[in-house]
Amino acid sequence: MIVRKVLALRGPNLWTRVPVLEAWLDLAGRQGRQTGEIPGFLDRLIRSFASADSGLDEVTERLKQERDLEGVVALLILELQRRSGSDVAFLAWRPPAEDGVARLAVQYQEEEVGRAALALALSLVGSALDDRPFDLRTELERLRTLTQQVRIGPNSAPIAAAARARGIPFRRLNTDSLIQFGHGVRQRRFQIAFTDRTSAIAESISNDKDLTKEMLRAVGVPVPQGRPVSDVEDAWAAALEVGLPVVIKPCDADHGDGITLNLNTREQLTAAYAAALEVSSNIMVERFAPGAHHRMLVAGDRVIAAARRDSAQVIGDGIHSIAELVEEVNRDPRRGDDASSPLRKFPLDPIALGVLADQGFQLDSIPPPGARVFIRRNSHLRDGGNNVDVTDQVHPEVAARVLDATRVIGLDLAGLDVVAEDIGRPLEEQGGVILEVNASPWLRQHLRPWHDPPQPIGEAILTSLYPEGDDGRIPLIAVTGTSGKTTTTRLIAHLFAEAGRVVGMSTTDGIYVADRRIETGDCSGPQSARTVLLNPLVEVAVLETAQGGILREGLAFDRSHVTVVTNLGEGDHLELRGIDTLEELARVKRTTVEVVAAEGAAVLKADDPLVAAMADHCPGEVIWFARDAEHPVIVRHRNEGGRAVFVRDGAIVLARGLEEESLVLLADVPITHQGRVGFQVENVLATAGAAWSIGLSRESIRSGLASFAGDPIQMPARFNLFEVKGATVVIDFPHNAMALEALIDTAESLPHTRRVLVFAGCNRRDLDVVRQGEVIGDGFDRVILYEDKGNQDRQDGELNILLKQGLRGRPRIKELVEVADENLAIEQALRELEPGDLLIIGVEAIERSLEYVQQWMEINL
Questions:
Q1: Where is the ATP-grasp domain (predicted)?
Q2: DSSP letter at 152?
């Protein structure tokens, strides 16, 4: 089997709403062959899973049910990911086409893991087909390791999960768990346990333990007595000043590094001082505060979790040695050697031996029944400590002191170390203290306490970023279709800009933010859409959404407030990326309708049957548009109380049920040219429907339509009309037969004595290019062809050969001229203009051609 192509569809796509890998798999002559017809194949696969000891019964049953080889591969990709720790469920496939290539789609959580699972599944199937041994156990371990390495980190994961549950969009910006929540101006960012509002100054203060104590003391928060020391002699002097026992710790370290507790002798202090020096040269001595060590988690203005930390310890039974008791504890499957495990194993290292010696024990000692033996003095999780959730036990006064401490330091998310005998009593009553205020708190200890269910800290932290009811979204309007996408996109963006919004727009002409182009070229795909949604200035996103991007990568967004489908007509770009028919093309474009929010709307063309059929797949409202007010789809919809936009008596009308409201006369909408340009009228109707559905005021819609002139600046090469030497010149970008037909229909309403076209074949299927020629031959008197160059998979001039096939024998065309270069063709057409001509210049290089036309007119007129 050969993988012809693998696509990561990162957003909603042709298959499903979740991210999938789409693999094009060449079955190498095995298409149509059932798995049961391959001797020993399934048995060998099942044996591989048995050797890996990996859910054998479930896999066996599913493999036996699957008859197609491509289905087995898809199933294995899914199962291998699940067994590596990914939460995935979706898979689908399409049988091989005539070329023997099947298409699979399998959900993934991490793209790198999905691709590795694909490669592993193919290797596994290949070994089963060829009867070769395969070490699945080792390969699965590698896949599990990869999953741990690339997945969102344990601090960011619960916030991402909470965002998913609340419908807040998020996007991972790098491999270090930096996540953007929300879109545009509503976005927030989170990494590890920092938010985008975590102050660098506050973090710096929290790292300075002595300064932190001073600031906490200043707001009445109890802290332990102590001071920085210069050397070990000064440390002993400080210990005597504050009174034994004491704690030695670095002034500027995090996560308990270099801290030693409950020091009672000079010898203990000297050893502890040396340990602290390995972490920092800035050392502090504090009076030891007796009591349990608690970690309090603050987000915003709330204490959202509290956990008591119990140090590593065993309870004697009078039978087993300390070493045996520790060994028994370490057998707990929850305990491991690194951070991937919920708990760490108890260490039996020199520090542990010293702690035992202080208690009068050795490893082979047999403690009496009920005796508590400490393996560590500290309660750090990495040293085997346990967590017990005590959130519901925290006294309100304790919570108040914790919030006081957090506020004075200036952190929005913090972990505070509190020592108290009883967290249910005020600190002042029991000599309790707050030891530290830490930025970037480790969240895992609250997610996986020792005995209790975890607190919903992901939800609580997310609520501090986005209060309940706030989904972090900005108005997002997606525009798709065959023709009119760019014009409609630009017009919608103009309406919102005129209403005072900062608009981010992606189109086939580039990316624009607040009317400034920040990227050139065709930007109608998902990468460009993500660029718009990433920009923190953007208040409204208007995204042209082409089929190529949907097929290549899926959508860049999971939900739209409005989706506009301008038309489908005869379609475009068929027989590309496996889309061969109009129905398949409609299915691709329908993806944008399927993601409409429940409170949103799809604005659909009523008189295009394939577009109209998309209405059944819209989760929100449907608003129809058409020039014909009496179209049956509109009439039926209005009778049911629905909304529609149409033309009546020369005006654009907004209708809800049987009520009608005249919005604006077509004569007052410049791009319609008094309503004579039919396709522009439809673009305006779609725009009005989109703006209406999202709540833009009538006056804003009206004034925006009136101020959109449709000139080369606002709408380059989209029916830009000039008067030149008594002739009418139109510059457009007619890229398919449907667009050409629309231009010819419009030409009927414009005064002219002769129609002239400057054109070059647009790269489509051969039959589509021939069809372009037929349409041109029926609609124009004179045609000037310029040579097509640089088209993918085409020889220079090949398209015009096909175009001339279509032109041959058509009834209207009288003259055909061929010119080598686009600008030369434009120059000749302009030079040879006669009064009364209607010249339509179909440009390929839009900006260059527009600039040439404008320069020519400046020189010659």
A1: 213-466
A2: P
Q: In terms of domains, do 759 and 654 share one?
A: no
**In a shared domain, residues 549 and 679:** yes
273 or 799: which leads in pLDDT: 273
| 445-468 pLDDT per residue, tens | 888 766 667 889 999 999 999 999
676 and 758 share one domain = no
Which pLDDT belongs to residue 578? 72
Count Cα neighbours of 550 within 13 Å in the Cβ-side half-sphere. 31
Q: Give yes or no: residues 122 and 74 share one domain.
A: yes
Residue 124: which of 135, 116, 113 has the closest Cα? 135
End-to-end CA, the chain: 65
Kindly give the pairing relationship between strand 837-842 and strand 91-94: unpaired
In a domain, 771, yes or no: yes
Total domains, the chain? 3
Phi, psi dihedral angles at 251 (to 5 degrees): -75, -20
How many angstroms separate the CA atoms of 366 and 431, rounded?
Answer: 35
Q: Which amino acid is residue 400, in one-letter code?
A: A
- Structural domain including 46 reads 2-150
* Mean pLDDT for all residues in the chain: 91
pLDDT band at 575 (very low <50, low <70, confident <90, very high): low
Q: Which residues contact 813 (CB under 8 A, 6 or more apart)?
A: 776, 777, 780, 781, 782, 783, 807
The model's pTM = 0.87
Say whether both 638 and 730 belong to one domain.
no
**DSSP classification of residue 68:** B
Q: What is the pLDDT of residue 55?
A: 56
Residues 622 and 554 grouped into a single domain: yes
Among 150, 175, 194, give the residue marking a domain's end: 150
Strand, helix or coil for residue 571: coil
Per DSSP, the residues of 328-370 read HHHTSTTEESSTTSSEEPPP-SHHHHHHHHHTT--TT--PPTT
Closest CA to 45 of 102, 104, 119, 129: 129
As a whole number of angstroms, the distance between CA 372 and CA 317 comes to 10
Residue 701 in domain: yes
Where residue 317 falls (left for φ over 0; alpha for ψ -120 to 50; beta otherwise) is: alpha
* 693, 738: one domain: no
Asked if residue 752 lies in contact with residue 837, where contact means CB atoms within 8 angstroms, the answer is: yes
Q: Rounded distance, CA 830 to CA 823, Å?
A: 10
Q: In this structure, what token pair is assigned to residue 495? A: 């309406």
Is the backbone peptide bond immediately before 245 cis, with ω within 30 degrees of 0? yes
- Of 260-264, 564-568, 576-580, minimum mean pLDDT range: 576-580
Q: Examine the domain organization and report whether 684 and 768 are in the same domain.
A: no
Amino acid at 319: I
